[in-house]
Amino acid sequence: MRVFSKLISHLFNPIFAPVLGTALYFLISPKYNPPEAIKLVLLAVLILTVVIPFISYLLLKNLGWVSNIELKETKERKLPLIVCIILTYITILKIAPASYSAELYFYFVGILGALISALIMVYLDFKISLHAMGISGLTTFIIGLSIHYEINITIGLAALILCVGSVATARLYLKSHKGLEIIAGLFIGVITQFITFGYWL
Question: How far is the C-alpha of 163 from the C-alpha of 158, rounded, in Å?
């Protein structure tokens, strides 16, 4: 069970939520996008939201400002979250502006809101589950897409909801978070995406 929980935690690391959401958007959306454009957008999102944050983490770890990738200490989360907020803002401006895709634009706006909320919680000395926040935000976005395009993706949504439960269970089993921290992460992930629905659904 411990190995499975660690595997789930690695597979659904919140750092992957932006690029997963982008990939699923292109997979679900009936709008035509040239394959070359899709590849460029996915590559840009991958670099800005996965590669650069990971390199930043390695730098912070070498400087002794963070102890491990789990960021178990609340105070260790400040700089990584600030870096992700800045990079997400750049993604909104340069990679997924509203003029390109309203759906992607507001997905990243929701992510930005979630990251800012997580940072505020850090300053309040409360550590929410970023894993729960990431997977719940992604799931809410996909639910929005299914409603927006009136597409039946029940099996996919069921799989995502199962992933939400698996991530929450894994984080609790590994004792990485308390129940309230998991619930707070789920709530922030859902509500920040749900708020954007009024602008693009």
Answer: 9
66 CB-near residues (< 8 Å, 6+ apart): 57, 60, 76, 79, 80
CB 144 within 8 A of CB 197: yes
Count of structural domains, the chain: 1
Question: Distance from CA of residue 163 to its chain's centroid?
Answer: 13
CA pair distance 90, 11, nearest whole angstrom: 25
Q: What is the pLDDT of residues 74-86, one digit of tens each?
A: 788 999 999 999 9
Quote the domain boundaries for residue 74.
2-200
pLDDT in tens, 97-137: 988 889 999 999 999 999 999 999 999 999 999 999 999 99
